[in-house]
Amino acid sequence: MVDDQLSLTFTALADPTRRAILARLADGDATVNELAEPFDMSLQAISKHLKVLERAGLITRGRDAQWRPCRLETAPLDDATDWIEQYRNIARDRLDRLDQEIQKIQRTRKGNDHE
């Protein structure tokens, strides 16, 4: 079973229903019924999705009398973004070095063409 935070986050984000739930929660807190409304699935199925999101720390569930709002938690998303950005920077650096080599080759060829 996956238990490191980054894996939990990416596992939760792998499902389009869970991503849609997070997108809805970005607009504000919502109940399970409100979150289930746009989906053609049972409340039990939505609850399973919410448990995955909650286990990943992407949502929390509060209690306000009978109202149990779900709330988006962004810290795991920030961690995932940082991880992705690290590899994006590595790829960007490699492409920049490749571009420099290509320009160097092109300058060399242009110089040889004028001789």
Describe the structure.
The protein has 115 residues and is mainly α. It has two domains: 1-73, Winged helix-like DNA-binding domain superfamily/Winged helix DNA-binding domain (Arc Repressor Mutant, subunit A, Orthogonal Bundle), CATH 1.10.10; 74-115. Helix content is 66%, strand content 5%. It contains five helices and two strands. The chain has helices at 5-13, 16-25, 32-36, 43-55, 75-113, and strands spanning 59-61, 70-72. The chain has a two-stranded antiparallel sheet with strand order 1-2. Strand 1 and strand 2 form a beta hairpin. Helix 1 packs antiparallel against helix 4 and helix 1 (5-13) packs across helix 5 (75-113). It is elongated. The termini are far apart. The model has no long low-confidence stretch (mean pLDDT 91).
How does the SSE layout of this entry go?
Blueprint: H1 5-13, H2 16-25, H3 32-36, H4 43-55, E1 59-61, E2 70-72, H5 75-113
Antiparallel strand pairs: 1-2
Helix pairs in contact: 1-4, 1-5
Précis, in short:
InterPro entries: ArsR-like_HTH (IPR011991), HTH_ArsR_DNA-bd_dom (IPR001845), WH-like_DNA-bd_sf (IPR036388), WH_DNA-bd_sf (IPR036390). This protein is mainly alpha-helical. The protein is 66% helix and 5% strand.
